[in-house]
Amino acid sequence: MTEDAPWLVVGLGNPGKEYAGNRHNVGFMVADLLASRVGAKFGRSKRAHGEVAEGRLGFGGPKLVLVKPLTFMNLSGNAVVSLAQFFKVPVSNVIAVHDELDVPFGQVRAKRGGGEGGHNGLRSMSKSLSSKEYARVRFGVGRPPGRQDPADYVLSDFSGVERKELDFLIDRAADVVEAIVLEGVEWAQNKYHGG
């Protein structure tokens, strides 16, 4: 980990109002909260097809570059690699925030590296970065009920019951991102994987 290098936090989602409340867009929701925490506003990037916000974590703390790619999920990596190159962010300082079918709703998990689990946003990032060794904050959405297609499930909105907990969980996911930046993935796992 390079001490002075900024961190690139990628909130994965799809652009457009019709997707705003989808399970697949939880990465955008967490990125929005992180931007408000560091007092930054998103604006269109000239360097990448995405919205970018920049700020520091705490007074004089690490620099965060938050990005919401506007390319749709399966091309997310294009914006990520452009920004990583411009801001000189090593892969070890890239964090993807995404919905995760293999984690039950109500849980947020941190990990570094690994497979993409069929997630097109992660697949695009791994390909563009030529590495899978970036950190991930996996926001559990659980498996679809019955025989519902997983693709339809992630492109539907959170249920009424889930929405009651959603703000708390988005807050927790933002805490996990900050913990990874300040203390590392293992520390974040030890602190947040209990519940």
Mean pLDDT figure: 94
Number of strands: 7
In percent, how much strand structure appears in the residues? 15-25%
Structure class: alpha/beta
Summarize the amount of helix as a percent range: 25-40%
**Can you tell me the residue ranges where pLDDT is under 50 for at least 5 consecutive residues?**
none
Binding site for tRNA: 19, 72, 74, 120
Pfam family, one: Pept_tRNA_hydro
Main location: cytoplasm
Subunit structure: Monomer.
Brief summary:
Monomer. With 195 residues, this protein is an alpha/beta fold. The chain has six helices and seven strands, in the order βαβββαββαβααα.
Model description:
The protein has helices spanning 26-37, 76-86, 120-129, 150-154, 160-183, 185-192, and strands at 7-11, 43-44, 50-56, 63-69, 94-100, 108-112, 135-140. It has six helices and seven strands; from the N terminus they run E-H-E-E-E-H-E-E-H-E-H-H-H. A hairpin with a 6-residue loop joins strand 3 and strand 4. Helix 2 runs parallel beside helix 3. The protein starts with 6 loop residues before the first strand and ends with a helix. The longest helix is centred in the last third of the chain and has 24 residues, at 160-183. The chain has a single domain (7-192), classed as Peptidyl-tRNA hydrolase (Rossmann fold). The protein has a seven-stranded mixed beta sheet, with helices on both faces. It is an alpha/beta fold and 195 residues long. It is an enzyme of class 3 (hydrolase). It holds the Pfam family Pept_tRNA_hydro. Belongs to the PTH family.
